[in-house]
Amino acid sequence: MGTVIIVFLALLFLGMPVAFSIAIAGVTFFFQHPELPMTMIVQQPISQTQNSAMLAIPLFILAGNIMNAGGITARLVKFAAVLTKNMRGGLAQSSVVLSALMGGVSGSATADAAMEARLLGPSMEKGGYARGYSSNVIAWTSLITATIPPGIGIIIYGTVGEVSIGRLFMCGLFMGLLMMVILMVTVAITSKKYGFQSEKGGRATGKELWESFKECIWALFFPILLLVGIRLGLFTPSEVGSFACVYGLLVGAFIYKELNWETLKHALNVSMIDIGAIMLIIAMSGSFGYGIPFEQVPQKLTSFMLNISSNKYIVMILIVFVLTILGMFMEGSVTILLLTPIFLPLVRSLGVDPVHFGLIMCTTVTMGLNTPPVGISMYATNQILDTDMKSYIKYMWPFLFAVLLEIAAMIFAPNLMLFLPNLLYS
Q1: How confident is the model over 317-345, as pLDDT tens digits?
Q2: For the segment 381-395, what is each residue's pLDDT rounded down to a tens digit?
Q3: Would the N or C end of the chain have less CB density within 10 A of its end CB?
Q4: Are 182 and 405 a contacting pair, CB within 8 Å?
Q5: DSSP string spanning 325-389?
Q6: Residue 38 gets which letter from DSSP?
Q7: Are 71 and 252 a contacting pair, CB within 8 Å?
Q8: What does the alpha-carbon distance between residue 215 and residue 234 come to, in Å, rounded to a whole number?
Q9: How far, in Å, are 20, 319, 356, 384 from residue 316 at the CA level?
Q10: How many C-beta atoms surround the C-beta of residue 156 within 10 A?
Q11: Hey, how many other C-beta atoms are within 10 angstroms of the C-beta on 228?
């Protein structure tokens, strides 16, 4: 398996697309084991996509794009701006709140970062915010979107690890809201340090809040329907994804009346590109992942880690360190796909709740989207806002520290994390 990993990393380093790097590395494994039938090279990618729970991923991507095209996103932007109008660093604070609101719509950190960079970036520059600071705020707050259901990484983890997606969603909702609070405090402190003021016009009136709330009530209502539907057993994760598509169509076409044939075609085109890229990676991981149990990698890693320490907190810190390093070089969904079968048996043997570990893993690897050298969200926001890497790194450290602080809280306070899923699923 070591040769397979070396081939994979070497191809990534040479600039080959992730899906093809995974595929070639997976084929390398079968060439190392000629006793295995070569037909497995074809069968594994196909079987990887036959899991019905995986349907949730393309459906939620499509639902997010339909909701964007139907005017839901624009109303959430306005509502976030009204809520944060009188806060220090108001536009930066609105990015934090918007990411929390978008958690029930998008599910993708990179998509949220790119969208907010286009919507909020020009206004932040006019408001006197440094480009490096704006890029960091928009990139790091997009982690909230990936944590609050329906986060794509969480669905992948739950499917691969056979962990309750309902419990993961409940835990993600709580941790996403906690992350929102932590990042709002970070924005308030850094805005004061760099001299960024609140927006002009004073505190929003009750009438402004109510009018803005009424406009986006259908968008805010969806995450509630999603969680209630899953908890009551009305929907499976894949079924709630199809419900999200229908919900977005109805709201966009008949309530907001902004979804027409042209905007729908655009949403479908964008969705095909997004879904094709993600599902190709998932499919190609089939042959790669086949070698993990075949060569007993989880058992060997468990023995190695337990030889270092049998303390579950020390082992969790070591895992977070590994995930942080890998997250700096690999796309988050790829890391979750490949490492969940390796790390989950290890933490289970130590008595760690798989839901607890799932949120830690997804948050840690998603953090890598915002760090050099290959952070996808970092590059997306920098490109859109024309930010150089030196300026980005200058303003990055407070946000990195804030997210690491939450990950530490997640490790050492499992009861806090699991309070909501235990309460609702007891």
Answers
A1: 999 988 887 777 666 777 888 889 889 98
A2: 888 888 888 899 999
A3: C
A4: yes
A5: HHHTTS-HHHHHHHHHHHHHHHHHHTT--HHHHHHHHHHHHHHGGGSTTT-HHHHHHHHHHT--H
A6: T
A7: yes
A8: 27
A9: 31, 5, 11, 36
A10: 26
A11: 12
Instruction: Taking residues 421-426, report their average pLDDT.
Output: 82
**Residue 136 banded pLDDT, cuts 50, 70, 90:** very high
On the question of a cis peptide bond just before residue 373, with omega within 30 degrees of 0, the verdict is yes
Q: What is the mean pLDDT of the chain?
A: 82
Cβ partners under 8 Å of residue 413, min gap 6: none
Other Cβ atoms less than 10 A from the Cβ of 322: the count is 17
Token code pair at residue 108:
């993708």
Tokens 């709201």 map to which residue? 251
User: Hunting for tokens 């969790």 — which residue is that?
Assistant: 316
Is residue 156 a contact partner of residue 365, using CB atoms and an 8 Å limit? no
Q: Give the whole-angstrom CA distance, residue 107 versus residue 239.
A: 16
**Rounded CA separation 267/275 (Å):** 12
Query: What is the C-alpha to C-alpha distance for residues 289 and 26, in angstroms, rounded to an integer?
Result: 8
The pTM for the full model equals 0.79
How far is Cα 346 from Cα 173, in angstroms, rounded to an integer? 26
* Three-class secondary structure of residue 405 per DSSP: helix
Q: Residue 129 carries which DSSP code?
A: -
Q: How far is CA 261 from CA 33, 243, 257, 275, in A?
A: 52, 20, 11, 21
DSSP 218-268: HHHHHHHHHHHHHHTTS--HHHHHHHHHHHHHHIIIIIS----HHHHHHHH
Residues 6+ apart with CB under 8 A from 206: none
First to last CA, the chain: 40
Q: What is the pLDDT of residues 151-203, one digit of tens each?
A: 888 888 998 898 988 899 889 988 999 999 999 999 999 988 888 766 555 66
Indicate the DSSP class of residue 54: G
Considering only residues 208 and 106, tell me which one the structure prediction assigns the higher pLDDT: 208
**CA 422/CA 426 separation, integer angstroms:** 5
362 burial level (CB within 10 Å; 0-12, 13-18, 19+): buried
Residue of 140 and 42 predicted with greater confidence: 140
pLDDT value at residue 52: 65
- Count of CB atoms within 10 A of residue 290's CB? 21
